[in-house]
Amino acid sequence: MSHHRPDTLAHAPLGRESAYPEHYDAGLLYPIERAANRAPLGIEEGALPFVGEDEWHAFELSWLNARGKPIVAVARFRLPADSPRLIESKSWKLYLNGFNQTRFASRDEVVAILERDLARAAGTAVSVELFGVDDEALAPRRLPGECLDDRDIAVDDYTPSAEHLGVGEEVVEETLYSHLLKSNCPVTGQPDWGSVLIRYKGPRLDRDGLLRYLIGYRQHQDFHEHCVEHIFMDLMARARPERLLVLARYVRRGGLDISPWRGTPGERPPLPLRLARQ
């Protein structure tokens, strides 16, 4: 399969039995057009209502040096939200596994190859950083702001409903978060566990309603990136904040974690923010 060709989930490796590659193969990357999943949310390519990135960490990256000795690293990838394509996660894992028994002259060569292949698949430049396993940059941290999870609410709706989102008249600037985010893989149905942070300036969000809304993703089937965009669009439509940042940090699966964020222009997440569950 050419890594230049975007495709649909019909032929993706996700949910299929796969043979793990023994050597490097850029053709394993499986790009998927973002537009199809954005259209139902009223998001038009070329006129995105947000800025953002999909941040990935790969914890199972290894290759051989010129003398055949294994090298291990943790990789951080940042894929811009305005890229025309995302990369399906299992194909990314298979691609990275192809490095395991392949010799490379240097760490810089590995970075250059990763940047080249991922950019071709995504349709735009992708940032690549490599870290040692014990690097302080990978130390887990806590989310800032106020946690919503101890609120004593009754819940009977486990599908996303913007009707739960209510606001008051007071304009505030605050950061709220929850560790109760859960969605499901749209192909395999496997659970995707995560935490979500919402930082905004605008009419004060009703906390009980916001928590009910976030819990509503519990049976929702979608990719991590699309869940974050769904949350962003619903909050913009219902609360109309002056500024908004939505950041989700999903628990790793298959050696990869995905942490997308979307914000109004000028917003940036408080990095680094790897959590203990990741």
Question: Which helices and strands appear, and what pairs or packs with what?
Answer:
Layout: E1 31-33, H1 35-38, E2 51-64, E3 70-80, E4 85-87, H2 89-97, H3 107-122, E5 127-131, E6 146-147, E7 167-184, E8 191-205, H4 207-215, H5 224-239, E9 243-250, E10 256-263
Parallel strand pairs: 6-7
Antiparallel strand pairs: 1-4, 2-3, 2-10, 3-5, 7-8, 8-9, 9-10
Could you provide a short overview of the structure?
This protein folds into two domains: 9-138, GTP Cyclohydrolase I, domain 2, CATH 3.30.1130.10; 146-263, 2-Layer Sandwich (GTP Cyclohydrolase I, domain 2). 19% of the residues lie in helices and 31% in strands.
